[in-house]
């Protein structure tokens, strides 16, 4: 059975959410799964892009937008060349996210927005670096979600709630959406379920 992108089309899977919500973790879980199904995959992580592509930019709205436009530009180039581009960046402003979506779709690729949702109080508990605590105490200015706005997606293709579900569950729901859109074929067709021998000597159907 062949697997892969329909007609060689790439797409952009855009993971957006507050710092610490689980965007990078999800991208790291999804990338090998998509590669295992025959896709060419690249991950554009917000922190890595700031180090390698957007060094020198600050955290003003203008600089944040410039950073997201750069990520979007690279993702668009990858997608139009048949690559599945996974982005993991806070991307706090709805307008620039929609701008990237329009540019990707104008190239004939699909843009799948995933809102990685997690409440602020949970993020503060998770935060091993203590950045949220400092931001809430006013020690860090312009911190997204505390002293700088985060505009939630109006109509994301997928919303995952990382405070309520395991990373595997969140990743699985994203994969299901990609399959539903025809961007990723199911790992196994209905007739290709594997039969495994059980300890009781009977065969058991196993879905992958």
Topology:
Blueprint lengths: L10 E6 L6 H14 L4 E5 H7 L8 H20 L3 E5 L5 H13 L3 E8 L2 H7 L4 H6 L21 E4 L5 H14 L13 E4 L5 E4 L2
Characterise the protein shown here:
With 208 residues, this protein is an alpha/beta fold. The chain contains seven helices and seven strands, in the order βαβααβαβααβαββ. Helix 1 packs across helix 7 and helix 3 runs parallel beside helix 4. It is globular. The N terminus and C terminus are likely disordered.
Concise structural overview:
The chain is 39% helix and 17% strand. With 208 residues, the chain is of the alpha/beta class.
Query: What is the global morphology?
Result: globular
Structural class: alpha/beta
What is the count of helical runs? 7
pLDDT below 50 for ≥5 consecutive residues: which ranges? 1-7, 189-208
Distance N to C terminus: 15 Å
Order of helices and strands: EHEHHEHEHHEHEE
What order do the strands of the largest sheet run in, or round the barrel if closed? 2-3-1-4-5
Beta content comes to 15-25%
Nearest-integer average pLDDT? 86
What's the gyration radius in Å? 19 Å
Strand element count = 7
Helical content stands at 25-40%
Largest sheet: 5 strands, parallel
